[in-house]
Every structure is written in structure tokens, then in C-alpha cells.
Design brief:
CATH class of the largest domain: Alpha Beta
Strand order of the largest sheet: 3-2-1-4-5-6-11
Shape: globular
Number of strands: 13
CATH superfamily of the largest domain: NAD(P)-binding Rossmann-like Domain
Number of helices: 11
CATH topology of the largest domain: Rossmann fold
Largest sheet: 7 strands, parallel
Number of domains: 2
Strand content: 5-15%
Length: 348
């Protein structure tokens, strides 16, 4: 990206942007960032299955922000959300654990929902469609670091459905000349991250358990690795994709380029919580659990100038402080978690 392109990407003045899944963890932070960078209008489209109003409370009085409550599969809702929009960030989806007990709905929301969004965005004449995918499309690493050409062998229907969304996004670029960009965040963490129910993520779940005086739970031997990036860095990178040349049709990895084992994760949280005595409990390995992830973010960095800024240990310490403060308003956090092995609740 040239210096001029980078300057344009840092200034979103005049742009009207839609964020689907905008009341969720990453989506709400992206909304905040886009508004802070001067977007003329930001709309969030969310059915509030995983997202919630509390994530957007800071924008309640902002005249440049609108929340549209509804499903991306609803024709009327999509038309309302997309009218007059320049840029779309498509994050709305159902997660990996949900796909194990309801693969049909998971695929319908993630794959068909994306295709419907692409069709409607094309009809509306959107300037750019940014599809926010996931590192789960890769499955377990066959080599590291994993670049964009790494084979895609997803372990779950979630990963498969997100890969279908990628394929549709690239097809709209090749078939219709639509400006689409696919970006694959690896493992994003930070404030507002999910710990409850089947959308709960490993780092916030571990923090909640340790803060409550419970030992963390590791499924398997704990040598599984993930590539963690703080949500501040993730949304900073995503915001750079709104403008700039040389991005149309690209597929980009978005990770830190460093891997952390689950054993090291538990140790880092225990240190931040000041409870090194709470050693992990090891349970049987989970089905569909990816063994190793380590992304190669070189292409993303070269095209946008992006570089992560939040070290993992600092990010963990800050997230512990955030959960400690939020526990005062929600003292029953442990009871809301599902620390059990992934199981299919019904036959597929």
C-alpha cells in the first residue's frame, strides 16, 4: 500500500459502513474503531444471539451509529441494513462449538448467510465487501508458519462453513468483478470476549475459573497451540482494509506470528491472577480440536503496513483485570460456563 493509500485508509471520513455481527466481541470493537477513525456512519446488524446491547453501550448517544436487530438471512433486514452503505464487514456467524450440536443451522447461517449478503451487497453496489473468516478453515497445521496457500482441511462444520463463505467471496470477485477481500483472523482475545455457553473461548474461560479459585481445564495434553492476537490489534488491522488499492480479491492471514500452547496459556493466566498453585486439570481431548495453529501474517503486513503491538503477557494481564472488574456486576460467571467436552447432542 502506498503512503497515499495508507493515509486514506487511516481516514474513513465520508464512508458509510455496515458491520454484520456488530454487537459481538470483535464486531463491537470494530464498530468503536471505525467510528473513532471518522466514519460518517456505522451500522451494526446483529440478531443478538451471541452479541448483546452492552457491547455497544458506548455508542448509544452517537448519532453516527445505528443498530439494526435482525438476521442476515432475512431479505427485508438485509435491504434495510445495506441501503446507502459503502463498505461491508461481514462477521455474523455461529461458532465452532455450536456446529457440533447443530451443524445444519451453523452451515445455514455461516455459508448461505454469507452468499445472501454477497448477493444483496452486489445489488446495492457496495464498494468493498470484507469477509471476516477464521483460521479454523485450515484445520491442523501441515507446516508452519501457515501462509495463505496452506491447504484448507477444516476439522469442523464451522470451519467448513466459513471456508464456503470464503469461496463465495472469491467467486464474486472472479465472476462479477466485485471488490471482495477475505481476511482470516487467528485467535483474537480481549475485553468482551465470550466465556459462557457454546460460544465460550479458552482464554476467557480459563481466566474466569482461576479468578473464582477453580483449577483451569485443559482438554488433551495441553500441547495444542494457537496464535493469539489482542482484539485492539485485530480491529486496527481490519479497519485498514476499508480503503487502499491492491486488496481486491486477496485472501489475508491476520495473526501475530507467534504460538502459545494451552499449558503455557494456563501458566500465564495463573501468574496474572497470582494463583500459581491452581494447576490445570487434564480431560480427554475434544473432537474436532485443531492441534496446531501458527499464522504467517507477511502478506497482510506488506499490503497494509500493519504490525501487532500488544504482547501476549500484557494482553492477558489486562484481560484478567477486565474480568476481575466485571465480576463485581456478574458474580456467577463460573455457573454460566460450559466446561465440558464437545459432544454432538443429536445424531447428524
Amino acid at each position: 500500500m502506498s503512503g497515499l493509500d495508507r493515509a486514506q485508509a487511516d481516514n474513513l471520513s465520508g464512508l458509510r459502513i455496515l458491520v454484520t455481527g456488530g454487537a459481538g466481541f470483535i464486531g463491537s470493537h470494530l464498530v468503536d474503531t471505525l467510528l473513532a477513525q471518522g466514519a460518517a456512519e456505522v451500522r451494526a446488524l446483529d440478531n443478538l444471539t451471541n452479541g448483546n446491547h452492552e457491547n455497544l453501550v458506548g455508542q448509544n448517544a452517537n448519532e453516527r451509529f445505528t443498530l439494526v436487530v435482525g438476521d442476515v438471512r432475512d431479505d427485508v433486514v438485509r435491504e434495510k441494513a445495506l441501503h446507502g452503505i459503502d463498505i461491508v464487514y461481514h462477521l455474523a456467524c455461529l461458532g465452532v462449538r455450536h456446529s457440533l450440536h447443530d451443524p445444519i443451522e451453523n452451515h445455514d447461517v455461516n455459508a448461505r448467510g454469507t452468499l445472501l449478503m454477497l448477493c444483496s451487497a452486489r445489488a446495492e453496489g457496495i464498494r468493498r465487501f470484507i469477509y471476516v473468516s477464521t483460521s479454523e478453515v485450515f484445520g491442523t497445521a501441515q507446516y508452519v508458519p501457515m501462509d495463505e496457500r496452506h491447504p484448507t482441511w477444516p476439522e469442523t462444520v464451522y470451519g467448513a462453513s466459513k471456508l464456503a463463505g470464503e469461496a463465495s467471496s472469491r467467486a464474486f470477485f472472479r465472476t462479477y468483478g466485485m471488490d471482495t477481500v477475505v481476511v482470516r483472523p487467528f485467535n483474537t482475545y480481549g475485553p468482551r470476549s465470550h466465556f459462557a455457553g457454546d460460544s465460550g473461548e479458552v482464554l476467557p474461560r480459563t481466566i474466569v475459573r482461576l479468578l473464582a479459585g477453580h483449577r483451569p481445564v485443559i482438554f488433551g495434553d495441553g500441547q495444542q497451540t494457537r496464535d493469539f492476537m489482542h482484539v485492539f490489534d485485530t480491529v486496527t488491522a481490519l479497519a485498514l482494509l476499508a480503503q487502499g488499492s491492491g486488496l481486491a480479491g486477496e485472501t489475508l492471514n491476520l495473526g501475530s506470528g507467534a504460538e502459545v500452547t494451552m499449558n503455557a496459556l494456563c501458566a500465564a493466566v495463573a501468574l496474572a491472577v497470582e494463583r500459581p498453585d491452581l494447576l490445570p486439570v487434564h480431560d480427554s481431548a475434544r473432537p474436532g480440536d485443531v492441534r496446531r495453529l501458527l499464522g504467517d501474517p507477511t502478506l497482510m503486513m506488506s499490503l497494509t503496513g500493519f504490525a501487532p503491538t500488544v504482547p501476549f503477557e500484557r494482553g492477558v494481564a489486562e484481560l484478567v483485570a477486565w474480568f476481575r472488574a466485571s465480576a463485581a456486576d456478574n458474580p456467577d460467571q463460573v455457573e454460566l460456563m460450559e466446561d465440558r467436552n464437545w459432544v454432538a447432542l443429536e445424531a447428524v
